[in-house]
Design goal:
It comes from Thalassomonas haliotis. This is Thioredoxin-like fold domain-containing protein. InterPro entries: Thioredoxin-like_sf (IPR036249). Keywords: Signal. This protein is an alpha/beta fold. Helix content is 37%, strand content 13%. It has a 4-stranded mixed sheet with strand order 2-1-3-4. It has a 4-stranded mixed sheet with strand order 6-5-7-8. A hairpin with a 2-residue loop joins strand 3 and strand 4. Helix 9 runs antiparallel to helix 12. The radius of gyration is 22 Å and the shape is elongated. The N and C termini lie far apart (51 Å).
Length: 297
């Protein structure tokens, strides 16, 4: 395929990209970490900020345009990788970039935007540049972006405008309750190297907590950090374990005691059932409403 055709394909695919959260999911979510992929972070790692993976080709005009508007990514941890999908010239340029100590430095961006040779600090040691090339190729091969620029959040392909819109919906509809979230970390489901856009507490009955399908569905929704608490307890059972004590504390703080069905609270605000569909996926809602008799069927 000629360079011109590849360029047109890149631009057309970008224009046709959906402006809503996509259901395209990587085969298995390889999420970059600041420890291993710190050289690809645009800014210093923020432990509580959500993370985004960005893929760009140094010769894609939309990528160059996006490099001039990095301010719109404020508030995220952004890992930027170079995906040379436009041919041999792009591959050569990416190799040049990955020989820099920082492949996402202002010097690199200036060279890409101005179509000039990259003038940057070189990494110490002959192996360092090769390490960056390996890490870049590993992530690019794993996600295999078919268009650029492409953005991924929690392993799912997204548009930045859709993420921003969802964040605005959360901030306008949810009045957060100040909780010491660190205190409740033992209730949090593991989501590797990832921080969601909001914290969600699920007050769930024991039979539901024990269902792998339910916890897997929660972990797969990377929009949120998920905390699973007990829906109820009685008598001495409320003090029988750390989870029981913390769950009872959260029910008291959020006035969630006495509920009979699975209940969701976003950023400490309990949602009414009629609002579930606006913020909670249909799969999670369906699983949450299963009775003990129907679980596993």
């Amino acid at each position: 395929m000629s360079q011109v055709k590849r360029l047109l394909l890149c631009c057309c695919l970008f224009l046709l990209a959906p402006l809503v959260l996509s259901v395209e999911i990587a085969d298995s979510r390889l999420i970059p970490s600041p420890q291993t992929h710190g050289a690809f972070l645009l800014e210093k790692w923020q432990p509580d900020a959500p993370s985004i993976i960005a893929f760009k080709d140094p010769y894609c005009p939309y990528c160059i345009k996006a490099l001039k508007k990095l301010d719109r990514l404020k508030g995220y941890n952004v890992f930027m990788f170079w995906s040379p999908i436009l041919g041999e010239a792009s591959k050569a340029k990416v190799d040049e970039i990955l020989n820099c100590q920082s492949p996402v430095s202002l010097a690199v961006f200036a060279a890409v935007v101005n179509r000039k040779k990259v003038d940057c600090d070189r990494p110490a040691g002959a192996k360092a540049g090769g390490d960056l090339k390996y890490l870049n190729e590993q992530i690019v091969a794993h996600y295999d972006p078919r268009s650029v620029p492409s953005y991924y959040f929690g392993g799912q392909k997204v548009s930045i405008s859709a993420l921003d819109k969802f964040k605005r919906q959360l901030s306008s509809a949810v009045k957060p309750v100040q909780l010491n979230w660190q205190r409740y970390q033992s209730l949090k489901l593991p989501q590797q190297h990832h921080s969601g856009l909001a914290n969600v507490i699920v007050f769930a009955p024991k039979h539901l907590q024990q269902q792998t399908a339910f916890t897997d569905a929660l972990k797969a929704d990377y929009r949120y950090n998920w905390f699973v608490a007990d829906l109820s307890c009685a008598g001495k059972a409320c003090q029988s374990s750390k989870q029981a004590r913390l769950s009872a504390e959260l029910r008291l703080l959020l006035a969630a005691d006495g509920r009979e069905q699975t209940t969701f609270a976003i950023n400490g605000m309990v949602l009414q059932p009629e609002r579930y569909q606006r913020f909670i996926s249909g799969e999670i809602i369906d699983l949450a409403l299963l009775s003990p008799a129907n679980v596993g069927n």
